[in-house]
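re: ur question from yesterday

yeah so i grabbed the chain u mentioned. its 374 aa long if i counted rite. heres the sequnce exactly as i have it in my notes:
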Amino acid sequence: MSYTTTATENTLKKWEREYFKEYVRESGFKPYMGTGSTNPFVVKKQLIEGGQVISIPLVYALTGDGTGTSTLVGQEESLVNRGYDLKPYWHRHAVAMKKSEKQNSTIDLAQAARDNLKTWDMDEMRDAIINSMSSVVEASGSYNELLGHPKEVYFSEATTAQKNTWAAANATRIVPGATLNNYSATFATMAANLDTTNDTLTVEKVQLMKRTAKKRDRTTGQASVRPIRTGDQGREYYVCFAHSLAFRDLQQDMETINLDGRPRNIDDNPVFQDGDLLVDGVVIREIPEMATYGTIGASSATVVPAYFCGAQALGIAWGQMPRVTRRKEDDYEFIDGVGTESLWSVEKLRYIPPGGSSAVDYGMITGLFATAAD
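ran it thru and got these structure tokens back, copy pasting raw so excuse formatting
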């Protein structure tokens, strides 16, 4: 009798499908990813069919006055349209083991390798999203295929000049602490205006970020940050990713509100349970892996970011979904190796507005807040 067996190739394909779903979900950002234009992280997969770069286009709203009964011919307005090019790079890693170690081990090393590769991929995606939210400028020279780096400069890598370029271009996209008067086109000066007395993250600061996000000016072409969704009665919803210390400050500021304004039960009240906070339709999510901007505030206060996101804050371009790879140099089948390989990039979407000369963060407000260490 002949029994049917599952081909190794088919087993690996199932492994790949489950692997991808698990690691994207466990990165913590999956609820905010999607192919639609109202998602904070817009996912594009067209490059899977081939190609190196994918452009995410944007058409700005009309700013002209139009006309009444006067002649319209010759007074038409051109549509201002822009594009941002996403350029994926390779993400690869592997684990190798000798047959002797697999024989001696009391644990399933192959399964352990799979789990650790999934964790590595998860960390890669999470860190890429965090770093991209912090990026200050797009620079083609930053793209590094060998080391795996996108064509944008993260805050942690930026020069003083690049930070100032970002600050000057994004006056309408930065909330520096308690008041917009803290703003300066010189980043170091702006950061030095922040102190731990007035400029910690509180309910009022979240509301200030939301008001700033909703501002739109037809005359200058300033675009608002589109909400993730609009509910009944004109309610608009956003998400804010906050550093742990800023999240702590907001928790403390909201303790009385949550105790007095919500049911005092363990299951639902955020005073007793871990989870997101909600302020005025804004979901505030803590990101423990987010880095500080350094002790650059007033009196050497630590400055931390809070990334207030609406639609089209980041773009995620896939060129190849995660694929299982196996080592070929196996020393006569004595060495076994399993790896992961994918092609993608996460980048902040930034466009030059009508009449402007510098690219502006499109779907994000960056909040800068002073905080004290634990």
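noticed a couple things. DSSP finds seven helices and 18 strands in the chain. also Helices lie at 8-26, 99-104, 109-134, 160-169, 187-192, 203-214, 244-261.
anyway ttyl
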